[in-house]
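BUG: 3D viewer hangs when loading the predicted structure for this chain

Environment: internal workstation, default settings.
Expected: structure renders.
Actual: progress bar stalls at 90%.

Input used:
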Amino acid sequence: MSTKEVVLAVARRFLSFVDESPSPYHAVDQIKKKLVAAGFQELREANTWNVKPNAKYFVTKNQSTIIAFAVGGQFKPGNGFSIVGAHTDSPCLKVKPMSIVNKSGYNMVGVECYGGGIWHTWFDRDLKLAGRVLVRNGDKIEHRLVHVRKPILKVPNICIHLQRDHNEKHSVNKESHVCPILATSVQSALNGNNSSTDKDENKSGQTSSKLQPLLVQLLCDELQVSPDQLLDFDLHLADTQPSAIGGILDEFVFAPRLDNLLNAYTSAVGLIDSCADSSLEKEPNIRMISLFDNEEVGSQSAQGAGSSFQEFVLRRLSAGGSQTAFEEAIPKSYLLSADQAHAIHPNYSEKHESNHQPALHKGIVVKINSNQRYASTGITNTILREVSRLGDVPLQDFVVRNDTPCGSTIGPIMSAKLGMPTVDIGAPQLSMHSIREMCCTTSVWQAESLYKSFFINYPQVYNSMNF
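Structure tokens produced before the viewer hung:
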């Protein structure tokens, strides 16, 4: 195939993953399926592990975070870890624990704004529901995924006739304005549903009493359970519009959740592809991807990058060597903190520093900040540049303007916690944190290629460092 055909084929596979990953739980489930198909074995965090060289494993936490690793054939405790870290969550609207809202003749669903989304982009979109539900099945409690693909919710804009300054001043109150409509009270009553919010009628405390009756009915139909089996839920709203290859030259990706499903997916593909030949047999390191939940809200959770989950996994894999095997492994290791980057915007080009304007198609972006909002250093940048040279993947640099606040990633969190050399990178994109984001098809291919090169070549690059 020509290069363009290869790039498009890679991008289409990624878009299929995005469309099947409307929540972190679905993203982890999709990645698990890819790993199992590639010969990875699942481990349980609470069980004893019997990890062997030249074998492949994964472990999950909260069903929304996953760490997968391939053990080098020459690995021994005290050797290094080659890690790509990314995250599975994205800004979204999440259903509140008690979400029944009935107002002005409408049955509505109370939602909470998760992360730093561009919330006005959620208006006038056809919204679906997805996430996880905890269900009682006999004497067992089960974790069930749910993905209602039908557009059942909408947050309508106010018409311009009732707010004449709409185009000049558009301020969204996240509590009162961002509340999606599910149905009208009239049709709900005709359907036989009682949407009363009288607290005295909900004294049972059942989960089913916290949701609109129509929503309970829908979830029960989807999961083939009865209302009294519903124990708890974590439900996300998502756009029903499928992802697409766009632009007159088929060069763009139009999709939700590019931040950060692009790096979650491509790092998994890079890990799997790096094990497709015999290189793992001669590998001294453990190749690893760590895909965390809750990055968009600060990573401070049991399943976030700020937890001890990563450290505990690394310590278990370092067991069996000397008493300081873990400490010996850390300086030999390297973390690629992979999160999306800001491409230059043609309509807001003044927002970028003049010498640092990442463009689409021109390579993966190295993110640098002297105030340590990114973890990149001269040494870690050099390592990455060697890895990219060996993989024939171009790189670009990004530094935020001095008069603009700098975002951050899991990179500084994990590098400070572990003391591990780290570099912050990402594919360039536009519309970050919008309900619909935009990047280029080339970035998907470049990310997969870079991560594969990293897993195969990092030990060689590390051994070449003469200091």
